[in-house]
Structures
1.
Amino acid sequence: MDIKPIPVPAQGTTLDWQLDQPYRAKHLLLLLLVLAVLLFTGHRTEMDKMVVMTGQAVGNLVGLADDSQVVRGLSRVGASMWPPAFGTEEEVARLTDLDRDQLPFLAKIETREKVEQHLNPDTLEMETSSEKVELLIKPLGYAWTVFIKMLETIEIAIWGTLFSVVLSIPLAWFAARNYTVNHFTYTLARGTISLLRSMPELIVALFLVLAYGFGPIAGVLALGLHAAGFLGKFYAEDIENADKKPQEALEAIGAGKLKTLWYGVMPQVVPQYIAYTLYILDRNVRMATVIGLVGAGGIGQELKGRFDMFQYDHVATILIAIFIVVFLLDQFSARLRAKLI
Amino acid sequence: MIEFQQISKKWPDGTLALSDVNVSIPKGQFCVILGPSGAGKSTLLRTVNGLTQTTGGRINIDGTELTAATARTLRQRVAMIHQHFNLTLRMSVAANVLAGLLPVVSTGRAILGWFEPAHRAKACALLARVGLDPKHLLRRAGELSGGQQQRVGVARAFMLDPEVVLADEPVASLDPKISREILSLIRDAARERNATVLCSLHQVDLAREFGDRIVGMRDGKIVFDGTPAEFTDERMEALYQGAQWEDNAVAEAADLYNDALQPQLVAA
C-alpha cells in the first residue's frame, strides 16, 4: 500500500476558528446573576425556613430533636386518617321509609346499647341511663358515595373535554396561518386562544360558580374553556406544520380549502390530535378533582366538606379513590395512545 | 395547446426566475424541458396551473387565458405529477387516487368519503392501468415503495381526464428501470386522452427517448427548442456548459477541508 506524503496546508487555509465554547466570562457572570436572584427569592419564599423545619422533622424522626412542628402536624392528621371510612351508620328510628324485609345490599341492622349521662334536675346529680338503639350499618355506604362522586368527576372531565374539542376545532382553523380567512380572523382566533389559556381553571371555576351556582355546570365550563385554548393552539400549530407536499398537490388541481384540509392535512394530524385530546382528558380528570374545592361539583366538593369538618378518615377514602382513578386512567390512555399512533 | 407569451417571473428578492419565455406547445405533444438546476424548469411548469404567479406575460391554455378568474376552472383541466409524489402518506391508496376528483365532488361527499360507484370504478381502472396490484388499494400510501407511490401519483393525475399534464421531475428519485416505466405510463396515458404533457427532467437520455420535443432552459431563458434528433451532444454540452460550477465548488471545498484536517490527524 502506498503511503501518501502529508500535504502542507494549502495557502489560504485558516485555523483561527473554533466551535462555540459555552464556558466564557459572560456565562460565568450569568451564573453569578442567577445565583444572586435565587438567594434573594429563596429568602422571600422562605426556602431557608423550609430547610430548617425539614431538618428538624428528620431529626425528630431519628430521635435527635425533641419537637418538630411538621411531624406533629402530619402525625395528627395521619393518625385521624387511619382507618379510612368506608361504611356508614344511621339510626333506624330516623329512617322513615326503611323496609326491614328488604334491606339494601350488604346492609344489616344492629342493636347497640347507648349509654347516656344526664343531669337529674330534682336531685342535681348525674344519672346514667341506657337505651337500646337500632342502627342500620352499611359497610360500604361511604365508599359508594365516593364512587358516585368520582363518577360525577369523571363525567365532568369527559364533558369538559368534549366541550373543549368542539370549541377548539373552529379556533384551530382560524388560528392556522395557512388556512385562516384573513389577518383579522387570525388575530381574533390567536387572541381568543391566548385569553383562554391565560385563565387558570380554578379561578374561572370560582367565577362560574357565582354565575351558575354550585355544581358540575361550572366545572364543565371551566375545564372546557381552558382546555379549548390549549387544544386550539396545538391543533393550529399541527395544521401549520403539516407536510406541505400533499396540500400542494390538491391545491394544484383546484380542490377547495376545506377539501384540501380534509384530504391533505387531517390524515397527517389526526394521530397527534388524539394524543393531545387524551392528554387533556387525563388532565381534566385531575383538574376536576381540584375545582370541586371551589364548589364546581364532583369529588373535590365532597373532599372540601369533609376536610372542613375534620373528618380525615373520610378524606383518606377520597384520596385513595382519586389515586386509583388517576392510576387507571394513566394506564388506559397510555395503551390507547400506543394503539393509535 | 399551451402558449407562453413573454412570460417572466421575478422573485420578491429580485432574482429573475423566468425572463421573456415564448413557447407554444401543440395539443397532444410530449414536451420535455431540460436544463441545469435552477434554470427555471419547475417555475415554468408551476406557472401553468397558477401555483406560481407570473410577473409578466400571458399564458393561454386551449384558448383560455390564465387569469385569477379562470385559474380555478383551468386547474381542473391541468393535472400535475410531482417529484416527491406528494401523496398523503397516512391515507389509503384509494383515498389518494380519489382525491384527484376533489374539485368536482361536493364538499359533503368528500368529507364523508362517500364516492359514487362510477368514481370508485374509475379509480380501480386507473390503478390497474398504472400497474398497481389491487391488493394495495386499501393500504396506506406511505407503506408503498417510491415507484409504487409515483404510480399512485400518476393515477391521481389522470382521474379528471386532464387536457394538460405537468410532470415536475417525475422520476428524479427513482431508479432508471422504474423511471422508464413511469415515463411510458405518463406518455401512453396522455396519448390515449390526447393530452399535452409538459415534463421537466434532468436525465438527458430519458428526454431523448420520451420527448416529442425538447426545450432547453438556462437562467430562465429558452436556449434550445427542437426535436430529440436535433438535440445533439454538442447542444447538450452547450446547455450544461459551466453549470458544473457547483460540483467544482464542492470539490474545492473538500480539498480545503482535507488540507485543514490533515495536520490535526497527524497530531492525533
2.
Amino acid sequence: MSDDIKKDRAEEPELTDQSRRSLFKTMGLGAASLAGAAALVTGSDDKAEARTTFAEFFQKNYRLMSEQEKKESVKRLETRYEEDYGRKVKVGYEPAEEGVLFGYALNIQKCIGCRRCVKACVKENNQSRHTTEIEWIRVIKLEKGQFSEAALTQGGYPGGDYGIQVGGNAYRNAGLILEGQHYYEPEKVPEKDSFYLPMQCMQCEKPPCVKVCPVRTTYRDPDGVVVIDYNWCIGCRMCMGACPYWARRFNFAHPTLPAKELNTDMHYLGNRPRVKGVVEKCHFCLQRTRKGRYTSCIEVCPVGARKFGNLLDPESEVRRILDRKRVFRLKAEFNTYPKFFYFVD
Amino acid sequence: MNNNSIVRFISTFICFGIETALYLLKGGLKFYIWCFILLSLGGLVVIGGALQGYYGFIVTGLTDQVTWGLYLANFVFLVGVAAAAVTVVFPGYVYKHKEIKKVAVLGEMLAIAAVSMCMIFILFHMGRPDRLWHIFPGIGIFNWPNSMLTWDVVALNVYLALNVVCGFYYLYKKYMGEPTNDRWYIPLVYIACVWALSIHTVTAFLMNTMPTRPMWAHSILPIKFIITAFAAGPAFIIIAFSVIRNNTDLDIPDKVFHFLSQIVVWCLGIALFLTISELVTELYPGTEHSFSLVYTIMGKHGLTMIVPFFWTAMVFMVGSFILLLNPKIRKNLTILPYICLVAFVGIWLEKGMAFVLPGFNPSPIGEFSEYTPSIVEIINCIGTWAIGLFIFTILAKGAVGVLLGDIKYKEYPDS
Amino acid sequence: MKLFKITYTVAAATLAFFLSTGPVTDALADNTESDTPKTDCFESREGYTKVQRVEGDNEFDWPNIKCSDKTGGVLWWGDPFDGTEPMGEMPIEADYSHEEAVVKPRIPHLTYFMPCTACHNGETVPVPTSTKPRQLYMHQDIVPNSLDLKHGKGAIWCLNCHSAKNRDKLIDHFGNEISFNQPQKLCGKCHGQIYRDWRDGIHGKRTGSWRPNGKRRWWTCTECHNPHDMEPPFKQLEPEWAPELPRGMTNADHEQHHYPEDSGHGAGHDSPASGAGHGETKAGAGD
C-alpha cells in the first residue's frame, strides 16, 4: 500500500497544486476570506494551523472522498507534517480488510496496573504529551478491602445493629460507577490489596458516540473500529457526553509532541498528529493492525494480559479466549455490544 | 401580489428599516449609558474569543471529565428563555387577551435576542467554529435524524426564523398602519407557539438521551425544562416590561403584569414539585445513579463545588415562590421585578450550574473531579449576555417606537 | 464560608489563568522528552533481557525501541523481531507455521551461562549422585536458600529441571535434554493447562503479527517468570506515571474516600473514624 502511494506521488506531481488552484477558482474570493478568517480565529501563529492549506480546509468528509481525493489529502498531510516536524512521514489510508472484525480481550486477572499500555499508546499514537496530556487508556485501581468486626457498629440502618461492611470494591457493588482510583502512585504494582481494570475505547457495535455526531465525522469501519476524521470534527463534544466508557479525549490545546518522539508511520484515521479542538480516541492502532501488526498496548503488556485478533477467524487468539474462558463486557446493559472483552483464566 | 405591490413592499420595508435605525439613535442619557456598558462588556468576547481561538480550550476550565461547561449551561438556560416568549404570544393570540396581544411582539423580540445568544454560546462551545460549515446540509453533512444535536439546530433556526418573520411582519404592518393578513399570519403565530415548546424539548432530549449521564437520563427532563423556562422567561419579561413602562411612554397595563406573575408563580410551584419528585426518585433508592445528584446537593468525596450553587438556587426559587404566592406582594409592581430577578437568577443557577455541570460528575467510569470556570469563560459568558441584552434593547426600543406610533409610515405624494 | 470559597476560587482561577498563559506558550516549544531519551532499557521483567536504544536509519526513521523515562521499561518496538530467531522444533500439537514463530534466545541473557559446563564438567564440579534437596553454597544470588526453593513448594528441586549430566541443558520427564532457549518445553511438563493456553496465544505475550499464520515473536516462560522464584509468579514492577490530574484539581485525595463512609462535607465524627478504618485496612493488608 505504501509503495502505491509513493508511485502515485512520483507520477502525478502536479496534482495537488492543480486541484488547489481549481478549488480557488470555484470557491472564489468569499471562500478565501472565509478560510483566512478561520485561520485567524484558530490561531494563525500556530505552525500547523497556518499551513493548513485551503484545499485541506475545504476537503470533504473522508468517507465521501474518492480514492483520488484520499491520495491528495494524504499527500497534503504528509507535506504539512514533514514541515512541522522536520521528519519524513508516511500517512497511510489502508481501508478495512475484508473478512476481518477486530476484537480485543483483556485478562483482568493478570493486569498488574503498571500503566505501560497507557504510555505505549501515547508513544505509538502521537498523543499530546503534557499540558494537556492525552491518554486513551485509563487504568482503574480497585481495592479489595476486607470485612472487619469493628465495622459492625458503624453506619447501617437506624439502630445500628447491623452495620454496613466498609470493605473495598470486592465487597461492594460496582455497577455503573466504579469506586476506583485513577491516580494511584505506589512504589510497586501490583499492590497486595488491589486489582486493576484498564479501560479504553470498546469499539462498540452500536456506538452511542456515532449516533450523536452531528456531522458524521466519527463512524464505524467494516473491521469494527470506530474511527474519527479529525479534519471533519467540529469539536462539539457530543460524543464525549454520550460515550459510556469515557473513551474520548479532546485536544484542549495544540498537541505538544516533540519531533523526535513522532511516530512517522501514520494512518489518516489513526495516529496522525491532531490539531486543537478535535476529539480523538483509541482506534486499535489502525496504522499497525491494518498492516497485520499487533496494537501497541498488546505488545507492551508485561504480563500478556492483552489479546487481540480477528473475531471472524475461529483460530484467532481472541476467538479461542471467547470459546474457552469466562468472558464479560463492561456495561452490557447499555446494549452497545463492545468488541472489547474482559476475561479471567 | 403583483409586481407593483412587491416593489412597494420592498421600498416601504427599507423605509421602515431606515426610520427605525434613526429612531434607535435617539435616546436619553440613560439609554446611551446602558448601551455603552453593554457594548463594552460585549466587546470582551473579542478578547476572550481571541484567547480561546488562539490557545484552544486550554484557556477554559473544561477537562476531559467535564467537557460541557458554562457555555452549554447558559445555552440550555437561554433556549428556555427563548421558548418562554410563548407565554406572552400564546395568551395574546390564542386567548385573545387584548392587553397582552398589544405587547406580544416584545416577547418575540426577546425570543430573537435569546436565540442569538444561544448561537453565540454554541459557537464558543465548539472546538472548531471554523468548521461550522461542515454541518450545513448540502456543502457539509447533516446527520439528521440520527443526531439529536441536528434536531436542535433545526428547532432553533426555524424558531428564530418564525419569530423574525412574525415579529417584524407585525411591526411592519403597524408601521404601515395596515391590518395584518391573518390568513397566514395567525397560523404562523400558532406554529411559533408550538415550536417554542419544541426547542426546549429537543434541548432536553439532547441531554436525557444519554444514559451515560444518569443525572440527565430521565423522562421528567423535557417538562422540567419547559416549566422552569416558563418561570424564568416571564420573570425576565416582567423585568423588561417594568423597565419599558418606567422609561417610555408605552403603557403596559397592570393586568399584563398580573397575568405574567401568575404564570411565574405557578410554573415555579410546578418546578419545585418536579424537583422534589426527582430528588425522591433518585435519593430514596440511593443507587449509584444518584451520585451526581448527591454530588450536587451535598458534595461527594469532599468535592463541593456545585453545592453552594444548588442551595442558592433552591433558596431563590423557594423564596420567590413563597413571596409570589401572596397576592399582595405579587400585585405590588414595585417589588415584583426584584422578586422576578431573584427567581430568574435562581433558575439560571438551578438549570445551568446545578444541572448541566454536575451531570459530568462522576465520569462514566466513576471519576469525580471539580470544574472551575476560567476567567476567559466567564468573560465570554458575560460578554455574550451583554450582546444579547444589547440586541434585546435595540429590538425592544424599535418595537416600542412602532407600537407608540413614533415610527410611522408617511405617504409622500410622489411615491 | 461558602461565599468566601467561591470568591477564593474565582480569584485563584483568575490568577491561575494569567500564570498559565506563559507555560502554555512554553509548552508548545518544550521538547524535554526527546532530548535525552532513555537508552538503557529492559523488556519484560526488570533485570532480564536488556536492550539498548539505537536511533534507526530505516524506512520510518524509527529507533529500535522507545523506553519509559520513569521506569526504563521498553514501551515500544520499532522492529518486533529484532534479535529473534526461529523457535525451532515445536510441540507437535501446535498448528502454527514453524517459520513464522520466533523467539528471543534466552542463553545470551542468562546470568551464569559461560557455558555452565565450564565449571559443571564433572571435574571442577562433580556430577551430583542424588537429586534430593541439599544445602548449596553457590549461586545464592539466584536461589538464596536451596532448601527453600520458591517454586513448587517443596515438590521439586534444581535437578528436576536442570540436567544433572549436561548442565548446559534443561531436562524433561524422560531425561531428554531441552535448550535454555526453549523453556516452554520444560515448564509444560508440569503446567499443562497454562502450556496449552500459551500455545494457543491465550497465556503469555506475543509481539508482531496478529494474523494466526503471521510472523510473531513468542515470549517464552522465563522472559516474564523467574523460575527460581515463583512467589509471586510475576514480580512487582514500578508503575508508570499517573495521569495528569484534571486541570483545576490539585490532588486526587478524594479518590481515597469511599462510599458510604464519607458524608460529603466530612461532617462530624464520620470522617476521622472512617479515615482511621481505612488506614487499618491498608496496614492489615500490608502485613
3.
Amino acid sequence: MSDKQQSVAFFRETMLPEQAPPATQRGIVKWLRENLFSGPINSIMTLIAIYFIYKIVSGAWPWFMNGVWTTSSLAECREVLQGSTGACFSVLTERWNQLLFGFKYPEDQYWRLLLAMVLLLVAVAPVLFAKVFPRKMLIFTGLYPFIAFWLIWGGTILTPIVALLGFVVGYLAFKKFEHQSFAMGMLAFVVGAAVTWIIGGYLTEAMSGFIALQEIPSRDLGGFVLNIILGTVCVSLSLPIGILLALGRQSSMPIIKWICVVFIEFIRGVPLITLLFVANVVLAYFLPPGTNFDLVLRVIIMITMFSSAYIAEVIRGGLAALPRGQYEAADSLGLDYAQATRLIIMPQALKISIPGIVNVAVGLFKDTTLVSVISMFDLVGMIRGPILASTEWNGVYWELWGFAVLLFFVVCYGISQYSQWLERQLATDHR
Amino acid sequence: MSTMTDPPSESFRLSQLINDTRYRSYTFQFIALIALVALIAFLGANLISNLAAAGLNISYEFLGEPAGYDINQRLIEYNSQSSHWRAAVVGVLNTLLVAVVGCFLATVIGVAVGVLRLSNNWLIRKIMAVYVEIFRNVPVLIWILIIMAVFIAILPQPRDFRGEDAEASMLLGSFAFTGRGFYFPKPVMGPGSGIVVAVFLASIAGIFYLRSYAKKALFDRGQMIPTLWPSVGLFFVPVILAFFVMGQPITLEYPELKGFNFKGGIFARNSLIALTFALAIYTAAFIAENVRAGILAVSKGQTEAAASLGLRPGRIMNLVVLPQALRVIIPPLISQYLNLTKNSSLAIAVGYMDLTGTLGGITLNQTGRAIECVLLLMLFYLTISLSISAIMNVYNNAVKLKER
C-alpha cells in the first residue's frame, strides 16, 4: 500500500465538480438540433415549414386585425376598410341570431332556445363527469328531454308531463311484472305507457291552453341550434336502438338475426343523403293517408336509423371482444339472458366500445349539416341560403365559413378529447 | 316385482312458450316475424292507397323518355334528347370518376401525412397533427363548399388569359387553371396508336412478372436480382421506342383561348375539381391516422430483430415492417374508400352532376317519380358498398395470420 503511494506521483482524492455539457448539447440548442435540424433533409423540411407558416400568418394577421365588426353591409364594410385588407366580421355580429337560431324562430322567443341549450349542458354534465357531480343530478338529466321539448316547441306543459307520466307508469308496471320474466315486464311497460298516453292525449286536447308557451312549428327551427338538436336527439335515440340491433345480430334466433343483419347492412351501404331524400320525398307515401309528419321529425327518424346501424356495428365489436368466459361465468351463476346482458355483458361491452361510439357521435354531428341539401336551414343552410344570397352580404365567404369551421371544430374536437380522457379514466387493466 | 312406469309424460302447457327456453326462442321469432309482416303490410297498404289517391303507379317507363336537360360534365356522349336512363349512366360514370380520382389522391396525401406525423422533425409533426385534427373535426360538406368558393375566388377567369400582357398565363403553354375549371391537353389517338398502348400494357405486365420472379428467386435460392432500375427501364424504354417506330401516332390537342373561353383539350369543371379535391383532403386526414396506427402497431422488436439479422433499413421496411403494417392499414383504408364514395353524393351541393344530381336530382324533380328514383339510387350505392365489402372479406381471409 505504502509502496504504491510512493510510486504514484499523484492521484486525486476528491471527485471533479460536474462540468456543464457543451453548448451544443444542452438547452434550446440541443432541442433544436435534435428536433428540427437533425440532418440535411430535416433542415430543409423545417425551413419549408417555417416559410409556409410565415406565409399563412403574414397573410391572415392583418386580415384578422383589421377586421370590421360593426357595419351593416358588405359595401359599408369595404368603405371603412378603404381598400386595405381586412375581414368583415360584422356579418357575424349582424347576423348572429340567424346563424345560431335560424331566420324564422320568433325573436322574442330566443330565450327559450338559449335556456334549452344551457340546460343541456347542466343535464349532460353529470353523465360526462360522473365523479365530479352528485348522482342526484341524474334525475334532472332524466327530466331534461321533456323540459327541452316544451321549451323548444312550446305548447301546453301537459304534453311533456303526460309523456313523462307514461314512462313512469310503464316503469311501475315493469317492476310489478318483472319477477315473472323480463319479457312479461316489457309487455307490461308497453301496455302501461300506452294506456297513459292515450288517456293523457284526450286530457291535453281538452286543456290545450294550460301553462302554454307559444307553439312553434319545427320547420321554423334553424341555425346551429338545429344542428345541436338533431345531433343530440339522434345520438341519444340511436344508442338504445343500436344496442338492441347489436344484440339481435349476435342472437342465436335466425329470423331476428337476419332482420337485424339486413337492416344494418342496408343502412350502412347507402349514403345519408339518400336517406334524407327518403325523409323528404318518399316517406310520406308510406304513412297513413292524411297524417302530416313534419320534416324535422321525418329527418330525425331517418338520421336515427342511420346512426343506430353504425352504433350497432361498434357495439357488436365490443360484444365480440369480450372473452367467452364472461358469458359462461354469467350462465354458471344462473343468470338468465336479460340479467346476464344487463349486469355482466353490456357494461363491459359498452366500455370497450366507447371510442367507437364517440367516433360515430362526432361523425353524426358533422353529418347533420347534410340537412341543408334538402332545404332545411341549419348553420350551413343559413350561410348558403339567406345570408350569402342577401344583397348586403353577397360575397363574404372567408368570415362565414371560418366561423362555421370554428364552431364545428370546437364541439367535435372537444368531444373527441373528452372520449380519450374517459378511456383513460375507465382503464381498469394494469399497464 | 317392480312395475315399469312410463317416464312422466311431458304434457305441453301454453306457459312453456314463455318460460321454457326450448320453446321461448320460437315464440320470440314468431312474434318478430308477425310484427315484420304486419309492418310491411301496413306500409304497403299505405303506399297503395297513397299512390291511388295521387293517381300514380310504380313504373320505370320514365327511364326511356327523353331527359330534356343538359349535363355539362360527362364522360360519354349525351345530349338533352337522350333518355333519363342515359342521364343516370352519365351520373354513375361521374360518381365513379370522382370516387376513383379521389381515392387515389386521398391515398397519396394520407400516406404522406401519416408517415410525416411520425417524423422526428417536431415542426412537421405538429403541422401534420393540426391538419389532421382540423379536417377530421369539421363536416366534409363545409370543406366542399369552402374549396369551391376558394377556387372561384382565387383562380383567374378565362378572360384574364387574353391580351398581350395577360394577368394569367398557361402552365407550360398547355395547362390552364381557371376559376371555371381546369383545361388539360387531350391525347388524340392516330392510326397505330393501339400498338403503342399495347406495348405499354405489356411492359407493365413485364414489370410485375420481373418482380414476382425476383421474389421467387430470393425466397427459393437466396439469389438477389435487382428490380428497381430494370423496372424503370422497362416502364419507359419500350413504349418510347414503339412511339417513334410507329411514327408518333399519339398527338396532344392543346386547349386554346378562343374569344372569352378555352376551346379544345380536356375540360374539368370547377365543381368536379373542387369536389374531388375536398373529398381527397378530408378523407386523407382519416387515412393518415390509419397509416400512423398501422406503422405504430408493428412492435419495435420486429425492427430490432430484423436489424440483428443484418438487414439494411430499406429491406427492413420492405420485408418486415410494411407487410405487417399493411395487414392493419388496409381494412380501414378500404372502408375509408367506401366513405369517400358515399360522400361523393354531396356533389349535389356544388352542382356537379353525379348520380345523385341526375337521377336523384333533376330526373326526380322533372318526372316526380320519387320512389323509383330513390330506390335506384340506393340500389346503386348498395351494390358498390356490398361488392367492396365482399372484396374486403376475401382480402381479410387471405392475410389472416395462419394459426393452428
4.
Amino acid sequence: MTDVGWERELAELRERQRAAEAMGGPDKVRIQHSKGKLTVRERIAGLLDPASFREIGSIAGSGSYASDGTLTGFSPSNLLFGRGRIDGRRVVISGDDFTVRGGAADASIHEKLNQAEQMANELRLPHIRLLDGSGGGGSVKTLETSGYTYVPAIPGWNWAVENLATVPVVSLGLGPIAGLGAVRLVTSHYALLLREQGQMFAAGPAIVSVLGKAVTKEELGGAEMHARSGSIDDIAENEEDAFAKARRFLSYLPSSIDSLSSRTPTDDPTDRAEPWLDSVVPRNRRHVYKMRRILEAVLDAGSFFEMGRNWGRSAITGLARLDGWPVAVIASDPTIYGGAWTADTGQKLVRFVDLAETFHLPVVHLVDIPGLMVGIAAEQAGTVRSGARALASVYQATVPWCTIIVRKAFGVAGAATANHTRFRYRYAWPSGDWGSLPVEGGIEAAYKAQLEAASDPDRLREEIEERLNRARSPFLTAEKFLVEEIIAPRETRSLLCEFANLAAPLRRSGRSAFGCRP
Amino acid sequence: MPVQIVKSAIAGVIAHVAVVEGERVSREQAVMMIEIMKMEIAAEAPADGCVRSLFKRPGDTVEEGQPLFSLET
C-alpha cells in the first residue's frame, strides 16, 4: 500500500485559507473601500509591524457542502484575532470584519472572542480591538433559526473585565458600533472613534426612530459627541491616525501589570529651563494662562499624549515622559471654570488615576484648582460625589506622586493635589495661592453680619480683603513649613526629571489593590 | 470664504466684548471675556479672520456650547 501523504488535505487547507482571506467577497470588499474604509485585514497590516500577524482560528467560519461532502462555499467568521508586534513588542489583536454580515457578532463564533481576551490575559499581552460592527445578539430573526431564546451572557466578558486590571486594552471604533460592540469599545484603557466613520450607541437609529425620535448615526453616536460625553478618550482623523494613536498610547505602558514601562532615550536636557515660565501666571488673579504650553515646557519635548481632551476639561490628563521615563500627568486648565472640578472632571480623574495605579506610572500633578465647581448646575450634576470619588482615587494611589502647585489650591479639590499623609513630594510656584476658601468668594459669608451693619459695605469689604490678602503670601506658608519648597517656575523641569529618576526604582510590578473599571 | 461659528467653552456672564463687528482679529486674540468663578476667561478667535457677527453683549449669560460670534476665515 502506497502512502500518498496529505497533499489533498493540504490543498483543501489552502483553499479554505484563500476563502477566509477573501473575507465577505470582492463585492463586499468593494463596498467597504467605497465608504473610505479599510478591510479588517488591511487594518491589521496597517497597525502591526510588517509580516508579524500570527492568526488564530484563520479558517473558522461556516462552510457549505455538496451531498458527497465536498466543500462548495465558505463564509469566514467575522471576528479575526491573533498575535503580532507593535514597535517590536508582542500584542494581541482582534478585529471585526464588516464585509461579513456587517460585523454582526452572531457571525463571529463567540469562542473566538473569548479566546482573544483570554490569550491577552494569560500571555500578559496588550489587547487591541478593531471594532466595526453591530451588537451581540444579532437580530430578532435569530429566534426563527434557533427556535428558543436565552438569558443574555457575554462570552469572554470575565476576561474582558479582568484584562482591565491586567493588560493595556485599546479599542479603535472604526465604523458604526452598537450594543455589545459599543460596550467592548468603552471597556478599555484607551478608546477612540474615527471622525465621521465611527459611531457608537446602545442601539442604532433604526431602533431609536421606532421609539419616536428620528436621528442620524452621527447625531446619535458620532465621535465629536462621544468625545464630549466622555465615552471615548480621543478622536482619530483617519485610520492611519487611529493606528498611530494606538501605537503611541501603548509606548508609555508596560505589556502587563507584571512588568514596568521602559525608558526611552531623549535628547531633551533635564536642565532645560524656560525663562518665560517665571512670568506665565498673571499677577491679576482674575486672569488665566495656558497650561498646555507649560506642559510642553516642562515635559520631555513632544512627549505629551493627551487623553480625554474634550470632557472633564478643567483637568488635562495624559501620558508623557520625563528624562525618558513614562509618567502620568494631571494638570489644571484655568481657562475652563478657572480649573474648578466639574462632575465630569471628577469622573475623568478617577479613571486616569486608576490607569496610573494599575500600570505603575508615577504621577505628576500641576495644580491650579479653586475648588469644586459651585452653583445649581454643578450640584444637579453630582459634582460633590464625583469630586469625592476623585479625592478617594488620589488617596488610594500608591504610585510615586509629585505635585507642583502653580497657582490655586483651595478647598476639598485643592486637598486632592496629593495624599497628604504620604511624603509630600511637592513644590509651589511663587504664584501659589491656597486655603480652605478663596478670599474673593468667602468674605460675604464670613463677614455677613458686619457687612450688613456697615454704613458703607463696599468699603468695609475692600478693607477686609486687603487685610486678608496680607496673610496670603506663600512665603508665610513656607515659613511655617506648610508648603515644603517655593521654586522659580523655570526650575520645574529639572525638578520633575529628578523626581522621575527617583521614582523609577520605586515602581513595583504586580496587581494593584483594585482594577480599572470602564 | 468659510464662516465659523465660535461656541462658548464654558458657562458664565459676558464681562466684556473686545471687538466690533467687521473687525479683523488674529488667532488666539480675545474676542469676548466671560466671567465665571470670579475669573475672566477669554473666548478667543480660533484662526485669523474677520468677526462677522457678535451674538452676545456684555451682561448676557452664556451656556456651554452656545454661539458667541461668527468668524470669517
